[in-house]
Amino acid sequence: MLFSVKKIAPLLGGLLLAGSAQAARLAIVIDDFGYRPQQENLVLQMPNAISVAVLPNAPHAHEMATKAHQRGHEVLIHLPMAPLSKQPLERDTLQPEMSAEEIARIIRNAVNNVPWAVGINNHMGSKMTSSLPGMLKVMQVLDRYNLYFLDSMTIGNSQATRAAAGTRVKVIKRRVFLDDNQNEAEIRKQFNRAVQLAQRNGSAIAIGHPHPTTVRVLQQMLPGLPADVTLVRPSQLLNEPQTDRPAPLPTPPAAKPHNPFRGIGVCRATQPPAPVPATRALMVVAESIQQSPLVQKISNLF
Ligand SMILES: [Zn+2]
């Protein structure tokens, strides 16, 4: 049977379009739940693909986790972990030097206080997540629960992925913080950055906080999400590759730290992610050029 190119081309185009319509998946998690029910209720009125992370020792932790689950939102435990900088800490903040038993006790309490949680992400944690011994203890405990670990990436050299190797714990990574700067225009910019990253890499995870400005921007922007971007829960991205594709996006200027509210430190990045070493890639390229027939022919002439 013969098909003319003219007939097939639009069909192929349609198929490609249908494929790309599911190509970009964006997960948005709102952290620091449990302290301000009024603001948080506004988040729970958003599409239920928006997920929430609840601080286990917050006064409204149990109530907000239950409510979020009832409305169909994915629930995470927002586990406080030690930062490098001096900040007010939540009770039971994980420290690298804590014993495995102490860490197990804290995580057990967190699981009890935040019902319906299917994952954990770190609140602050630049000190804890950059400690391999510390994170090994965390992953050993998480292995006993069926919880994934969303690395908030508050420090470039987080050891979470390394520590989870050899356990059943799946690790995924935050790519964009929506509201390090709580200016609405800045939050819109970060939202668009998350959308672009999802389109470029196939998926992206963005984290925000229940600030009035963040809530307003999400209410404005979510209905206008591009047709090729689908909102998903982090648990739908557990098998996604966690590496970035090479084409760089413009990096926004570093934002000043900003506490969402008194007593709770923000889970922002304290330093940019460590650059990926390029030497190895360059060596491979140089080697393959040396071995190419053309280069060998030329070098034989001399
Ligand atoms: Zn937090």
Overview of the molecule:
This protein has 302 residues and is α/β, with parallel strands linked by helices. Helices cover 39% and strands 16% of the residues. The protein is built from eleven helices and nine strands. Strands 1, 2, 3, 4, 5, 6, 7, 8 and 9 form a nine-stranded parallel beta sheet that branches. The radius of gyration is 22 Å and the shape is globular. Bound molecules: zinc ion (ZN). The site of zinc ion has 5 residues, from strand 1. Zinc ion (ZN) binds next to strand 1.
| Assigned CATH class | Alpha Beta
Q: How large is the share of residues in beta strands? A: 15-25%
Number of strands: 9
CATH H level, superfamily name: Glycoside hydrolase/deacetylase
Mean pLDDT: 83
**Major sheet attributes:** 9 strands, parallel
- In CATH, the topology is named TIM Barrel
Coarse shape? globular
**Which ligands accompany this protein?**
zinc ion
